[in-house]
Specification:
Order of helices and strands: HHEEHHHH
Structural class: mainly alpha
Largest sheet: 2 strands, antiparallel
Number of helices: 6
Helix content: 55-70%
Length: 177
């Protein structure tokens, strides 16, 4: 039973962060950048803690999901997925922490709207969510859904990065605006 809590924590922490941070920025328009950074980092750390607990406890979930198509929600940790899950959790914390340690006052012209910064952290956490689902998936359909959950936020991040002129890259590295 405790293993199931770790599994839920590993899967739902990045999902709640990816959905919650943009909602926070939407309804509280003047959210400080530091608060969004700390919030994103907190969800990433919660995911890492859930992943470590899941890898140690090795819970298994097997539920009927879409019976007409024969799709089951099979989530489990095996020998191949365990190191990949740990690496995903660790790199998620690192990727989320990098822009959080720089103050907007230190970089000229780095002020950014809270909604853009929240979207940046939401895309990072959405990518982490999809990767965790992919590495836990025991059914091909669940794997492909998790893979799509990785591709969509990653595409959004790359599309935003690739279209900016080179002079804005420092800003982007700081706040992903």
């Amino acid at each position: 039973m405790v293993g199931m809590i770790w599994l839920l924590f590993a899967v739902l922490a990045p999902l709640f962060g990816a959905l919650g941070l943009p909602l926070l920025a939407r309804f509280v328009p003047k959210v400080p950048a530091r608060a969004l950074g700390v919030g994103g980092l907190g969800f990433a750390i919660a995911t890492l803690i859930g992943v470590v607990g899941t890898v140690l406890e090795r819970p298994e979930v097997s539920l009927e999901w879409i019976p007409a198509l024969g799709v089951r929600l099979d989530l489990a940790v095996d020998g191949v997925s365990a190191p990949l899950l740990l690496l995903t959790g660790l790199m998620g914390v690192v990727a989320t922490a990098v822009p959080a340690h720089i103050d907007a006052e230190d970089v000229p012209g780095a002020a950014v709207e809270s909604s853009r910064l929240a979207l940046y952290y939401a895309c990072l956490l959405g990518t982490i969510f999809g990767a965790v689902i992919c590495f836990l998936a025991g059914d091909a359909m669940v794997f492909f859904i998790g893979f799509e959950c990785v591709l969509l936020p990653m595409w959004l991040l790359i599309a935003r990065l690739a279209t900016l002129p080179r002079k804005h890259w420092l800003e982007l590295q700081v706040f992903a605006s």
